[in-house]
Amino acid sequence: MRKMKRIFAVFLTSALLLSCFYIPVMAVGTTAKFTLSMNRLTGSAATGFAVGDAIGANDKLALDEYVLLTLGTDADKVSEYQVTVNFDSDILAYSSELERDSHYSNGYSVRDTLTEEWSSKTSNLQDDGKSIITGGAHDANSTVKSFKTTALIYFVFRVKTSAADTDDAKLFWLSEDDATKAKIGYRDAANKTVQYTPDLSAEARCGIAGVGFTLTLNQLTGSPDKGFTAGKEIGADAKLKTGDYVLLTLGTDAPKVSEYQVTINFNSDVLTYQGDLGAGSGYNNGSSTADTLTSDWGSKAYMLQSDGKSIIAAGADSYNSTPDSYGTTALIRFVFQVRLDANDATGVMVVWLSENTETRAKLGYHNEVGQIMPYAPDISAALVRDIATYTLGDVNDDGEIDVSDASAILDHVVKRRILTGNDFFAADVTKDGGVDVSDASRILDYVVKRITSFD
Known about the structure:
The chain is mostly beta strands. The chain has three domains: 27-209, Immunoglobulin-like; 213-388, Sandwich (Immunoglobulin-like), CATH 2.60.40; 390-455, Type 1 dockerin domain. It has helices at 2-20, 403-413, 421-427, 437-447, and strands spanning 27-44, 48-54, 60-62, 66-73, 80-87, 92-97, 105-106, 124-125, 131-137, 151-159, 166-174, 183-187, 193-199, 203-209, 213-223, 227-233, 239-241, 245-252, 259-266, 271-276, 284-285, 303-304, 310-316, 330-338, 345-353, 362-366, 372-374, 382-388. Strands 1, 2, 3, 4, 5, 6, 7, 8, 9, 10, 11, 12, 13 and 14 form a 14-stranded mixed sheet that branches. Strands 17, 19, 21, 22, 23, 25, 26, 27 and 28 form a nine-stranded mixed sheet that branches. Strands 16-15-18-24-20 form a five-stranded antiparallel sheet, with no helix packed on it. Strand 8 and strand 9 form a beta hairpin. The radius of gyration is 36 Å and the shape is elongated. Mean pLDDT is 80; it is low at 1-5, 7-26, 106-110 and 285-289.
């Protein structure tokens, strides 16, 4: 009997001790996913935002665009959650939290058990500058659907102007860091916390639309002494003709530009630089009073360099204007002549942008408070063209030397149709540098077989 009393006393003491350190048991529910989705935002941080279209994986974000990230869940009901959202800080800059109808308080409720241990960190950008801890709780044990939304919280980000062009970039994902392990749960009828097992596989992807320089070629009629008129574009399927004048336009697809600098290389075996035709670009040669990108070597702008095959182009506008405000995306225009001794060839690289570190391309604009916002410009723009040859005597380039070629020369003589470029050089069968009746006569001699060549 005495032994039984001792056993009972030990049992009673143990029970009392256990009751003092009782920890509520959390029931584990089913798996619940967090979800991440993106929408475009219109407006600004100063004037307020309006939520626009959803952003899918095949879309591209524009530089300086604002994006709304929604953290949601597919859980049936939620009273508490905590999670760390990671973002690509090379592409996105955290702007703010956007309060909408999520119905979850920042921090924690009076009854929460999951989030109270680190609620002071919630909705804060962390020291690493690329993650946000978010957590929330609601006093009632409500279902997500009762709020007509699966959203828990909303964040605003801006696409950084330093972001490079990319496809399918992973912009947002959830952290699996043990120190801030994601939690999500609700309270059952007995007010016990039922914790889901969270799936952290959610991520959000899309492309980023970078900006760069563009290069285009157009035909030119006229001459350096009488002036030029720009004609149709010389596309990739066209050929550059010996002696022709061509217009090179340096442009950009950036949404706004106040300053730029770039070095243009050209194939000096094919092209001869004639000068700057800058009218109408809207950008001043050199620099503006507020520039920070181009002032270091703006004095070199629009100068043929000592190597004889590169040109430095730099400019700035006193206002932070978009190229379209000038009705063009052109920054500057240059005139070249296709060399008379250019060889017949296909797939010739004729113009491209330099990657020289001493004259590295720069492109940027000034923000609302006057700070320079540099882009990371794509300088892959290049023009590859075929160089057309000509056959002496085949003035109309139809593959035959006949009376029609002599007729074309006579039209040129009486100024009915002026021959230019390869047509002119094909007509100069006497090789005296001009085209006149003697060339037509020489071709007729060839047609009637009085001569067999123009040597």
